[in-house]
Write the structure tokens for this entry.
Amino acid sequence: MAILKFRIYFEEDDSVYRDVVIRHKQTFFDLHETILKSFEFDSKHAATFYRSNDNWQRGREISLEVYD
């Protein structure tokens, strides 16, 4: 089974980071929840992901809305 590994860090302080792993069939919402749990944030945070190219130029936006 393929897995995807991400390093998540704050733009303001890249010394604070988490490495997270998800299965390749999981969704962006699953990734969002994994990130929240890894930083011990509550679940009331919105999320936006961006596709990028090899030069990290921002492409299509993928927004997640969190509902109670």
